[in-house]
TrEMBL record:
InterPro entries: AcetylCoA_trans_1-like, AmpG_permease/AT-1, MFS_trans_sf
Keyword Thylakoid: no
Gene that specifies this protein: Slc33a1
Organism phylogeny: Eukaryota, Metazoa, Chordata, Craniata, Vertebrata
Protein's name in the database: ACATN protein
Annotated membrane topology: Multi-pass membrane protein
GO CC field: membrane
């Protein structure tokens, strides 16, 4: 219902914009960055061939490998250990004001000549949160009781997530500030899009690999079935 309602709203508003919004013909059109799709890709290729850009792309494609598993798998493991999904979803609500305020605070430190300083300073702390999240997953079954989980457990999870958001946004805002700083203003849109796309890809591919490796790297034991291995999903099902 939610998706249907907002889908309808988007369709109606975009249709009204298409029908009712008129272009201002009197303004002098600004110089376009490119003339078409082919020119855009040629321009992107010429940008990415630059040695500095190539090195930077390699760095941001691999920078997030260290904490990909913690980011992608922690929530799923907590659910697997019995934490209700709706409770974890509710914990996202108090995170919203944190996520709004953090970029405003962090932007003061990334506005200078070296925005990536904030990026590399936040990295070791974000790596440490991988250990903290591992401890959290290990600790979860130990505090569970018949009525569910105690309040202090959710307070610890909430604080862990909040502090993790500080490191996450420190890196995110810093990389955005750096991309904005180094992008050539004449082709700013194309340049920024390229760097931000590579940055997003650098966060997505390690998470995908981490999720794919969860099953092969998980040690399982079969209860009540001697001699039966549970290493694969098919064997666990048997």
């Amino acid at each position: 219902d939610f998706l249907f309602f907002w889908g309808a709203v988007f369709l109606v508003t975009t249709t009204l914009v298409a029908l009712l919004k008129k272009e201002n013909k009197e303004l002098t059109p600004t110089k376009e960055e490119t003339k078409g799709i082919t020119d855009t890709y040629k321009l992107l290729f010429s940008i990415i061939k630059m040695p500095a850009v190539l090195t930077f792309c390699l760095l941001i494609l691999t920078a997030k490998v260290g904490f990909s598993a913690a980011d992608a798998v922690t929530g799923l493991k907590l659910v697997e250990e019995g934490v209700p999904k709706e409770h974890l979803a509710l914990l996202a609500v108090p995170m919203v004001p944190v996520q709004i305020i953090l970029p405003l605070i962090i932007s003061k430190y990334t506005a200078g000549p070296q925005p990536l300083n904030t990026f590399y300073k936040a990295m070791p702390f974000r790596l440490l949160f991988g250990l903290e999240f591992a401890f959290l997953v290990w600790w979860t079954p130990k505090v569970k009781h018949e009525g569910g989980f105690p309040v202090y457990y959710y307070v610890v999870v909430l604080l862990s997530y909040a502090l993790h958001q500080v490191t996450l946004y420190s890196m995110y805002v810093a990389i955005m500030a750096f991309n904005a700083k180094v992008s050539d203003p004449l082709i700013g849109g194309t340049y920024m899009t390229l760097l931000n796309t590579v940055s997003n890809l650098g966060g997505n591919w390690p998470s995908t690999v981490a999720l794919w490796l969860v099953d092969p790297l998980t040690v399982k034991e079969c209860a009540g079935a001697q001699g039966q291995a549970c290493g694969t999903p098919a064997a666990a099902e048997v």
